[in-house]
Amino acid sequence: MASEAAEKAFGAIGDAIAIIRAEVARPHCRSASDTDPLAAVADGCLDILAGCARAEAQIAALKAEAAAAYADSARSAAPLDMPAQAQEMAIAAEVGCVLAIGDRAAGMLLEQSHALATSLPGTLSALQAGTLSWQHAKVMVDETVTLDRAAAGALEAHFLGDDASTPARGCPAGEMPAFRFRRKARTWRERHHPDSIEKRHAKGVQDRCLEYTPEQDGMARVSAYLPADQAAAIWNRITAIARGLQGPHEERTLTQLRADVFATAALRSHNSSCPGHGISSGGAEAGAAGLANVPTPRAEILVTIPVFSLLGLTEEPAILDGSGPIPASMARDLVANGADSFYRVLVDPRDGAPLEIGRTSYRITKAMRNWLRMRDGKCPFPGCSNHSLDNEADHLLAWHHGGTTGITNLGQPCPRHHRLKHASGWRPTLATKNEPPGWVSPSGRKYKSEHQDWEPPHWPPSLAPEAGQWQSQRPYPPMPTAFGGTVDYLRIPPSAGEEFLRAYLDAR
User: How far apart are CA 118 and CA 457, in angstroms?
Assistant: First the structure.
């Protein structure tokens, strides 16, 4: 039985929830001094939602601590001759019964709770403070489960630590959806994993597979586990074909068209343009008929690779747009074999970010659109995952209101959030050359966008700048101002590596 103090505390929690529920149920009872009662009601409800999120995180931390402590005490109290596997089964069964969840879910909860209690103190502290949700904590556990303690601590410090040498920029981890945090955490993990990405990728290639999963309502799911370059090429090719089939008389959505194009390509025989497997007219047969008049497009893959990695002097991972870090060997192969959308980009040697491109006319150039894709990676609206290929370059401050056509006044919202900007009170904040715009809601709350985690490129040991030339390279000296503005580079004698890089670029 819980102690009397614990029982009283849970009773107080129940009483506090009842008070807050009453506040929600009587939103019209506001202060007479409110100039806008409806706005005050909305603001109060948003505050309660924010408080609920904090309380849920704190309860989740309490649950994890209690589960870990129970497991430790149960193991200590178990008979000495009881097999370890039987102990774990008994512990999971007890937790599952108490929480009314299955044994498998209980086992996962116990594993996650143990990891938080023993290996991830920063994550547990953030959960206790209510700044990180349970879903975020699970992401941290998943992304560190195969890392040693030092590597796990480095990943945790990057996203949660106050004194990290290279902290994550932009939207804090707890303020972005957990599925977006998983993507950022996985990207950082791939870059900084103690084992070479080449070695891990070679093992992954051996595990490639195609899976079939029956679903409800006469449906099924087919999924492939493939190297990232192949998967990205397939996805972009199918998307391009599906877009070509769209038109005023096409009723199918882009998602449905992708499925039909995939089925058509997989089932088409050499002797027939139509698979003819009893698929309804709205399915692959319709897709096959439409494909006959659509020219086969070239799949578009954007690969950003450091030049020294491209030359084979370092093994720094490249970035595959929409996927994340890939082995340098894969990127070199894509470039050597003519990847359709490889763009050579000059980056700032201080932080690895592309340099700003400016223009004084309204028209946005292709180079600027490509730069936006690399700066933002996706729609900059908080929590949106819409891929950059689907998004629209947009002036943050409208051209007719005095806005300029420069990178700091451009965003690339997806069609949905582009409409939101023009049809509601949501408005973007200004951007910078390295950071996408944030957003301000109609209630006045400010939300940060995710930022790309640009990192200074790796230099080969034989070509690195001489010691002391950049004051040990990191952090770099502050850039001086000239003629009233900040310059991008401090003019210093070039190193051997810079001379080599300049000669290579000139030769291109």
Answer: 34
